[in-house]
Amino acid sequence: MTKDQFHIEVEDISLYPLERSADYHFWEEITFTELSENILAELSDDKLKTFSGVIRNGSAFKLNEYFYRIKTD
């Protein structure tokens, strides 16, 4: 867990292998660094908390044109 500027815990997804898909059929790997620098940096704190919580709980989350999730085998 990490904490935001108000010291509220936020799910930490940086250790998980991540992937994204435009159509929910073909999934491609994406690094947390790429995701955080290009996508997550633009999100509000509330949207970031929701994104991290949904991803951490095993669901996919849609941001812009892609769905994101923790990679499954």
Short description, anyone?
The protein is built from two helices and six strands. The chain is an alpha+beta fold and 73 residues long. Strands 4-3-6-5 form a four-stranded antiparallel sheet. A two-stranded antiparallel ribbon has the order 1-2.
Can you put this structure into words, describing what you see?
With 73 residues, the protein is an alpha+beta fold. It has helices at 32-38, 45-56, and strands spanning 2-3, 9-10, 18-21, 28-30, 61-63, 66-70. Strands 4-3-6-5 form a four-stranded antiparallel sheet. Strands 1-2 form a two-stranded antiparallel sheet. β1 and β2 (9-10) form a beta hairpin. The longest helix is centred in the C-terminal third of the chain and has 12 residues, at 45-56. It is globular, with a radius of gyration of 12 Å.
- Low-pLDDT stretches: none
Name the shape in a single word. Answer: globular
Mean pLDDT: 84
What can be said about the biggest beta sheet?
4 strands, antiparallel
H and E order: EEEEHHEE
Strand order of the largest sheet: 4-3-6-5
Give the tally of β-strands.
Answer: 6
Strand percentage, roughly? 25-35%
Keywords:
73 residues; alpha+beta; 4-stranded antiparallel sheet; two-stranded antiparallel sheet
SSE blueprint:
Blueprint: E1 2-3, E2 9-10, E3 18-21, E4 28-30, H1 32-38, H2 45-56, E5 61-63, E6 66-70
Antiparallel strand pairs: 1-2, 3-4, 3-6, 5-6
